[in-house]
Specification:
This protein has about 675 residues and is α+β, with helices and mostly antiparallel strands. The chain has a five-stranded mixed beta sheet. A four-stranded antiparallel beta sheet has the order 3-2-1-4, with no helix packed on it. A four-stranded antiparallel beta sheet has the order 5-6-11-8, with no helix packed on it. β9 and β10 form a beta hairpin. The N terminus and C terminus are likely disordered. It binds zinc ion. Zinc ion binds next to α3 and α4. Keywords: Aminopeptidase, Hydrolase, Metal-binding, Metalloprotease, Protease, Zinc. Pfam families: Leuk-A4-hydro_C, Peptidase_M1, Peptidase_M1_N.
Length: about 675
């Protein structure tokens, strides 16, 4: 592990001020963030009159690195002065920085604030020793900003309401490839220096960096994959041509892709979530490569975020459904166009099944089942994210599309909505007002006030979605799943098992098998003779399938104490190093009577686990996590049991050295969004 070239802590240095002209951490003209009562930066409209301040004389102690060279306004005096600043406690995931601007600064006068800071081990920044990568050759680092982690990466207005462009200069050892979520990048090999620039305004959480032994391969005219060399052929094979197909489908629906390139980087198993929609460069966990259908859905979901979430962003963390619900809707429009309605309905059924499972765990009156959740001071917004954010949000958007009666007309509306609000942040009312003005006939009918389906109720009622989509077009795929599940729970078992075992599931879609296993998991513990028959019928077959299938089967094994298959659990845990495939199993093992087995496996494998994951598992081992784990508002707690909740871009852990306590235990929810 090595820290970047920062030489002094922020507090030891004054924050100098320079006239506007170029970007360090660029507060571009469009962003105009409200700094605090003391300061309000202004738009560029009134010309580049520089304020006359001078550089401070550096004090004793380690000298800071030289300031980056900014192009000066022709004829302007170099002007810099130290500024008074204050750091105040905010929450345990960040402090507030107040900078006092000089009284001489006039309203509308452009200025630039330069902050020197050091960031080493921080919630947003994950340093990996070589042995935590696939190649074991070079160290690796990645950042995960969503939702409020990036304040530990660089000083920022860490709210999705504020957007700005950014530039970055990154120095890396030779042989280490650096990538960022930027529209432009250059590399000067002799200096080992990368320069990045994001030309469109983005919220702080979308600034992302990754560096390691990464190699590229083209998979389309504007896309390439980046992966460790040993993974590159697989990644290329699975995505070649497909990403362009998805991008083109999305463009036909929602207008031009506005970010230039769409690249994908595969991250080591310690990446704490499944995927993150960083603009120009989707981050995705390598472990998903072996589960094809999940890979497809996860990438398409991130593609959809290019329009919904990245271009048009929810202005507050209380309305994350605006990004997730719309991205999920767009993702399903893309899969309908590309793979047909039946597959899309199957995937939706699988996910809504998980939503209802989550609701049984949380209770119908859980405040986090609202679309508009209340963010109390000090609470990490990531804790508010759950399947409701995605699926109840999706159901509301789907309901709106049904109101207008024609999905294509609704696509046109969304296209106009993106065109109007791209590169800005919006609240739900903006979406709903736009909807009603796009469809004046609906406004006249007061569709927003229909009894029982009021827009207000959609936003603020707890419980399940007020309406769910008609998934009958998927019945050719979902009906066999239902039928097989019924057989396995019918009496007498021996006859039913005989009938069930005659059904060949080896040709099923992954989502069918996963849905079937989820149902069995819901019913666990099952009678021992059922588990025995299930094992006889499926264990070897499922063991040859992808990890999404195996984890579900192994959870059934564990929850039913089916010892003959326990060796498969051990083998799985010995080969899986990601949160999403380890934590659900450890939680199940420790909830039941298999804790000593869990301890033994953990001691054998812990050396290959990322320290954060190791800590999480240690905590599970020391406490055990029951299905009735209480929701917690402790901001240091893990937002959700990330291993079990597999929302693509659900929050990173904000743990630092904190051991997590599962805020909302979603151990029964194995889904990916
Ligand atoms: Zn998402």
């Amino acid at each position: 592990r090595s820290a970047p070239n920062h030489s002094a802590p922020a507090q030891s240095l004054p924050a100098p001020i320079r006239p506007a002209g170029a970007q360090a951490l660029d507060s571009a003209p469009h962003s105009a963030p409200a700094l605090s009562a003391q300061a309000r930066p202004s738009p560029r409209a009134h010309g580049p009159t520089a304020c006359a301040f001078a550089f401070p004389t550096p004090g004793p102690g380690p000298q800071p690195p030289p300031l980056p060279a900014f192009p000066e306004t022709p004829g302007a005096e170099p002007a810099c002065c130290p500024l008074a600043f204050r750091l105040d406690p905010f929450t345990d995931y960040g402090s507030s920085l107040t900078v006092t601007l000089p009284a001489e600064l006039q309203a509308h006068q452009p200025f630039q604030v330069i902050l020197r800071y050091t960031s080493t081990d921080a919630p947003a920044i994950w340093w990996l020793d070589p042995e935590l990568t696939y190649g074991n050759a070079k160290p690796f680092v990645f950042t995960q900003g969503h939702s409020v982690c990036n304040r530990s990466f660089f000083p920022c207005f860490d709210t999705p309401a504020v957007k700005c462009t950014y530039s970055a200069v990154v120095k890396a050892p030779s042989g280490v490839q650096v990538l960022m979520s930027a529209t432009q990048s250059t590399y000067v090999e002799e200096e080992g220096v990368y320069r990045f620039h994001m030309e469109h305004p983005v919220p702080a959480y979308l600034v992302a960096l990754v560096a390691g032994d990464l190699k590229p391969a083209d998979i389309g005219p504007r896309s390439r994959v980046w992966a460790e060399p040993c993974l590159l052929p697989t990644a290329t094979n699975k995505l070649s041509g497909a990403v362009e197909e998805w991008l083109s489908a999305a463009e036909r629906l929602y207008g031009p892709y506005m970010w230039g390139r769409y690249d994908i980087v595969f991250l080591p198993p310690s990446f704490p979530i499944v995927a993150m929609e960083n603009p120009c460069l989707t981050f995705i966990i390598s472990s998903i490569l072996e589960s094809d259908e999940f890979l497809v859905i996860d990438v398409i979901h991130e593609v959809a975020h290019s329009w919904f979430g990245n271009a048009v962003t929810n202005a507050t963390w209380e309305e994350m459904w605006l990004s997730e619900g719309l991205a999920t809707y767009a993702q399903r429009r893309i899969t309908t166009e590309t793979y047909g309605a039946a597959f899309t309905c199957l995937e939706t059924a699988f996910r809504l099944d998980a939503l209802h499972r989550q609701m049984r765990l949380l209770g119908e009156d859980s405040p986090v089942s609202k679309l508009q959740v209340k963010l109390e001071p000090g609470v990490n917004p990531s804790h508010l994210m759950n399947l409701f954010t995605y699926e109840k949000g999706y159901c509301f958007v789907y309901y709106l599309s049904q109101l207008c009666g024609d999905p294509q007309r609704f696509d046109e509306f969304l296209r106009a909505y993106v065109e109007k609000y791209k590169f800005t942040s919006v609240v739900a009312q903006d979406l709903l007002d736009s909807f009603l003005s796009f469809f004046p006939e609906l406004k006249e009918q007061s569709v927003d006030c229909r009894a029982g389906l009021e827009f207000e109720r959609w936003l603020n009622a707890t419980g399940p979605p007020l309406a769910e989509p008609d998934l009958s077009q998927g019945s050719s795929l979902t009906r066999p799943v239902e039928a097989l599940f019924q057989l396995w729970t019918a009496e007498p078992l021996d006859q039913a098992a005989a009938l069930a075992s005659a059904i060949d599931i080896s040709k099923w879609r992954t989502f069918q098998t996963a849905l079937f296993l989820d149902r069995l998991l819901d019913g666990s513990p099952l009678p021992q003779e059922v588990v025995m028959s299930l094992s006889k019928c499926y264990s070897s077959l499922l063991d040859s399938m992808n990890a999404e299938i195996r984890i579900r089967w192994l959870q059934i094994v564990v929850r039913n104490y089916y010892y003959p298959d326990l060796h498969r659990v051990r083998r799985f845990l010995e080969s899986q190093m990601s949160r999403m495939y380890t934590i659900p199993l450890y939680e199940d093992l420790c909830t039941g009577a298999l804790k000593s087995f869990a301890l033994e496996v953990f001691y054998q494998t812990q050396g290959r686990l990322h320290p954060n994951l190791r800590r999480t598992i240690q905590q599970i081992l020391s406490q055990g996590l029951g299905p009735s784990a209480e929701p917690s508002t402790d901001p240091s707690a893990e937002p959700v049991s990330a291993g079990a909740d597999r929302d693509s871009d659900s929050p990173a852990l904000l743990l630092g050295d904190e051991a997590p306590s599962s805020a909302i235990s979603l151990r029964d929810v194995n889904v990916s969004a």
